[in-house]
Amino acid sequence: MDTNKKLRNFYDQQIAEWPGLKDGITALEQVQEKWISLSGDNIQIQYNPLRKINVTAKVVDAVDSGSCFLCASQRPKEQRSISFEKSFLILCNPRPIFKEHFTIVHNDHRPQSLKGFFDTMKAIASKYTDYAVFYNGAKSGASAPFHLHFQMAPKAVFPICTAMGFENDFAGAGFSRELNNEKVNQDLLNVIVWSDTVKGLQTRVFKRKAHRPKCYFDNSFIVSPACVELGGVWVTVRAEDFEKADSEILKRVVSEVSV
Ligand SMILES: [Zn+2]
């Protein structure tokens, strides 16, 4: 059985045996969506009020392993895992944004940092070719900056992996050098890696200058951009924001948070 299929089967088994995950999937049926054009690309806007807790979460940097929700002792008892190499576990995310939304956690309670682990991201994307692997830096949308983790979801859900007109390369060689030489602030970073059927491994790097845009703080438009949004799926949590989301607002948000 191929690795993508094994992963899908694992997800289906977890839905069957873990009511918390089933509830998360059922909640997704309530999500409304619309599409807009942004610089020639089709971008999805979601209305998902259940994500409010994530979108408006305070950034917490220090949590010890005794109260970390990604550490083994605090994880739900029904949550099983698939190992990746020696140090990582693939888990189903009980508050999914998409069906088949996984969290990939390091075995140790150690801070979010990509240095030394970019190759791991690429290895995951090379193994699970139907999926995109993404990394949110500690100050760029990571929900648990205190515990190293990636996320993974079907690449078909990300406009960036399918239709968005990026010419760029690349297996991320230049970025890898920047990361190793500490020429990039890895707290202010979003990275998405996937295997393109034709072009091979693709990396898209978003360097950030802010975690959240001005409109978040003046309460006029609540979004908290991270990989999912920059990959082309904007999650809104208030009906009014879903209604008014358009290319002009999103362009402004992107320019305010991006380098
Ligand atoms: Zn932890």
Explained architecture:
Helix 1 (3-17) packs across helix 2 (19-28). This protein has one domain: HIT family, subunit A. It has helices spanning 3-17, 19-28, 52-55, 118-127, 159-162, 173-180, 214-217, 227-230, 239-244, 247-257; strands spanning 32-38, 41-47, 82-84, 88-92, 102-106, 131-136, 149-154, 189-196, 200-207, 233-236. The protein is α+β, with helices and mostly antiparallel strands and 259 residues long. The chain starts with a helix and ends with a helix. The structure holds zinc ion. Zinc ion binds at residues 65, 68, 70-71, 109, 147.
Gross morphology is globular
Question: How many independent structural domains?
Answer: 1
CATH superfamily: HIT-like
Ligands bound to this protein structure: zinc ion
The name of the CATH architecture is: 2-Layer Sandwich
The percent range for helix content is: 25-40%
Alpha plus pi helix count: 10
Distance between the termini: 43 Å
Strand runs, count? 10
Rounded to an integer, what's the Rg over CA atoms? 17 Å
Largest sheet geometry: 7 strands, antiparallel
In percent terms, what proportion of residues is strand? Answer: 15-25%
Enumerate the strands of the largest sheet in spatial order, edge to edge or round the barrel: 3-4-5-7-6-8-9
Q: How much is the average pLDDT?
A: 92
**What is the CATH topology descriptor?**
HIT family, subunit A
Order of helices and strands: HHEEHEEEHEEHHEEHHEHH
- Structural category is alpha+beta
The low-confidence runs, each spanning 5 or more residues with pLDDT under 50, are none
Give the CATH level 1 class: Alpha Beta
